[in-house]
Specification:
Oligomer: homodimer
Pfam families (chains A, B): Homoserine_dh, NAD_binding_3
Family (chains A, B): Belongs to the homoserine dehydrogenase family.
Distance between the termini of chain A: 41 Å
Pathway (chains A, B): Amino-acid biosynthesis; L-threonine biosynthesis; L-threonine from L-aspartate: step 3/5; Amino-acid biosynthesis; L-methionine biosynthesis via de novo pathway; L-homoserine from L-aspartate: step 3/3
CATH class of the largest domain in chain A: Alpha Beta
CATH topology of the largest domain in chain A: Rossmann fold
Protein name (chains A, B): Homoserine dehydrogenase
Largest sheet of chain A: 11 strands, mixed
Largest interface: A-B, 86 and 85 residues
Keywords (chains A, B): Amino-acid biosynthesis, Methionine biosynthesis, Oxidoreductase, Threonine biosynthesis
Strand content of chain A: 15-25%
Radius of gyration of chain A: 25 Å
Structural class of chain A: alpha/beta
Number of strands of chain A: 17
Shape of chain A: elongated
């Protein structure tokens, strides 16, 4: 083949690939455990030995259940970037800034390949990292940063690389999916399930990253950059799931929908991009609606490739270690790509403001507890529907049900926009018999 | 990085990658259409131009809906292998032998990279092809040979490459899945649905490759070689779906199972491999049970990666063209691997004979139409259960139902073996009130 690239299938004997690992939490020890368990397999897959020669972590004496005595120990992780005998720096410390960022940047500047599971770092500093990677010809791989053990990055950057995707969407956070699944299956309230998730170690003491959508937003930002083009992270619209009740899940199900915390990105005309993270109603028979518990899943759609869905464990020692090691295998095989899988860097753009995007919505309106001032539910349904239709909101269906001692009205709208919904919510709040702020959830049609 | 491999992310300007395509059916024209539609995207993904310069097909004058006037035309496909200006030969003619095989072997011998969608060729002549690929340092890629647009090969050869998988299994044939889905959803009989599938073009006039399992067997053989080790194709146990009735699907559903045509391979102790294609009962809530219509899906399981499922369109112009082009992108990026993703060739082995493998079964026994010689269904159920238990077959449950004018007995066995089932079938056939040969279907537990 006439190519400047190295396209060989019969490799000469290659020197060992030497790793330095920063961060020895669950994933770091998982990577070492995987390497030791599957050493012969890894060698047969790559034709070379892959070995950890150095580690860095805060606590030198903690028992991690694995023998680290033969490894060099660096108290300062940045030193891994300078170590001449390390080929690949594996950053598993976490955090968008601080030591993790300093190490990754130093390693790239030293021309070393970097493998990381750090979604916040990649999502928030992509432009700087892409530039360093390119300038110093140092690959930066991050399969483990998105959806744990699922090869989601590989699927988008390679598997459907030929296709101009029109949309990608997924369940990108296992904790929030676990909570929604438990609420749906057991009827328990959000706070109760969250507490259980925290006790089981599925959720952090501060659950915000998971349930307010930030963790999913980091992952979506990365996927969007690969599939469409880089976006400014702060322009992503993110909203969390704290207001979802078990009753919402049941009402949605009655209407043929499941409620899932989704991250979705769409290619719009003129190279614009729509991207957001929020709880949505999706068709109950869609592939993503079947993904339950701590599982993650990603669906891509393109004019040639059609819909493809991949699902698996989104976190945990084993799956994440598998993803880290898949990147290391790619490096050992000599396969590396620019950060977003494109040869020319594209400047990040702001996502399209979500307020103007066409969408349907689920609208939940709670009435005040019955009294002389509160009409019966049937009358209230008719009156509120009239208010909405007088404001030119298309209504496709409406029903009422009792929730505790108050009635709730549930509407499905026709195609409108968040701007319209936001204009109508204060109008509804002023209706004398309506209690609190109505809840609006986006409907997203997924295959 | 100290590596003999080319691990660069900032590529120099590369010459165009020039393709010669043999076979201009649906997939061949689809590949040309994709190239022309997504030319800018492909260039941005690879940093080089990808162009078709030559084609070969039987009929030079047929209208294929695309302009071929600028391309060199070869009447003899083998000539593509010798053309000095072609970098990659794309074989889309099909057939395990004949012109397709001659072209692929000639191209590899000429040191050219080959991309093919030809599952029969790869499954049946893997050892020869692997040797030629290695000897002449010519990559042979075949993502499109397995599960159409789904990046199944990439997932197994790269995504879960670090893990020693314990099992992989999938719905690897869209036609048979379409038929089973239609039977389940409409209650129509097998023959009736097959006829419709043939009229719609989903099934061939001779449907044997699809419904007797041979198409799935080719794909399973390829996946098994990558995940575990190469197997002798003829040692694969293959059985078809012609005896499945709509009633079987309904009875299985009552018991909490779906019936799917599956290809499954398992890693056994001592480097042995179990692999087979057959209709199976799988848990109704498992991921594969949700995969309907012409969709394909693959689940892998490993100690680190856990269960991962990928699903999408298993055939058709767009998805298959996407898969072919994904391989071409890998070549353009300089990423190529040995046939099975391992550096050292392993000799193929025979699969473990399935007769001795432990399994549970679904057993359907039809009684003769009611007469004085035929006991009532409750009595028959008790008598047959006694016969089976006297033969030491563990029975977990049994029930009866009417199917047309005769009663049927349905048993789920405990763990036994196909050898035991095969020993008992003639004993059952000799029972005076049993009509015909009972049907036994394997139960496969899938996540």
């Amino acid at each position: 083949m006439t190519t400047a690239h190295h396209n060989t299938v019969s490799s000469p004997a290659l020197p060992p690939l030497r790793l330095g690992i920063a961060g020895l939490g669950t994933v770091g020890t998982g990577v070492i455990r995987l390497l030791r368990t599957h050493m012969a397999l890894l060698q047969s897959r790559t034709g070379r030995q892959i070995e950890v020669i150095a580690v860095s972590a805060r606590n030198r004496t903690r028992d991690r259940g694995i023998d680290l005595s033969a490894l060099q120990w660096y108290d300062n992780p940045i030193a891994l970037a300078a170590a001449p005998d390390i080929d690949v720096v594996v950053e598993l410390m976490g955090g968008a800034d601080g030591a993790a960022r300093a190490l990754v940047e130093a390693a790239l500047k030293a021309g070393k390949a970097v493998v990381t599971a750090n979604k916040a770092l990649v999502a928030r500093h992509a432009q700087t990292l892409a530039r360093l990677s390119h300038k110093h010809d140092a690959p930066l791989l991050f399969e483990a940063a998105v959806a744990g053990g699922i090869p989601a990055i590989k699927m988008v950057r390679e598997g459907v690389a030929p296709d101009a995707l029109t949309r990608l969407g997924g369940i990108l956070n296992g904790t929030s999916n676990f909570i929604l699944t438990e609420m749906a299956e057991t009827g328990r309230a959000f706070d109760d399930v969250l507490k259980e998730a925290q006790e089981k170690g599925y959720a952090e003491a501060d659950p915000s990253a998971d349930i307010d959508g930030w963790d999913a937003a980091h992952k979506l930002s990365i996927l969007t950059a690969i599939a469409f083009r880089p976006i400014l992270f702060d322009s992503l619209a993110v909203s969390g799931m704290r207001r979802i009740t078990t009753s919402d899940i049941h009402q949605a199900r009655k209407l043929g929908y499941a409620i899932k915390m989704l991250g979705v990105a769409r290619r719009l005309a003129d190279d614009r991009v729509e991207a957001w993270v929020q709880p949505c109603l999706i068709p109950a028979q869609s592939g993503l609606a079947q993904v339950n518990g701590v599982y993650n899943a990603l669906t891509t759609e393109g004019p040639f490739s059609g819909p493809i869905t991949i699902s698996g464990q989104g976190a945990g020692e084993g799956p994440t270690a598998n993803a880290v090691m898949a990147d290391i295998i790619d490096l050992a095989r000599g396969h590396a790509l620019p950060l977003w899988g494109r040869m020319a860097e594209q400047a990040p753009i702001a996502c399209e403001p979500i307020e103007g995007l066409p969408s349907r919505f689920y609208l939940r309106i709670t009435l005040k507890t019955p009294s002389d001032a509160v009409p019966d539910a049937t009358t209230a349904l008719r009156e509120v529907r009239t208010i909405l239709e007088n404001e030119a909101l298309p209504i496709e269906s409406g029903h009422h049900h009792m929730e505790g001692d108050a009635a709730q009205l549930i509407f499905l709208t026709g195609t409108t926009s968040l701007a319209e919904i936001n204009r109508l919510l204060p109008i509804l709040e002023e209706v004398a018999f309506i209690n609190g702020t109505p809840l609006a959830l986006k409907l997203e049609d997924l295959p």
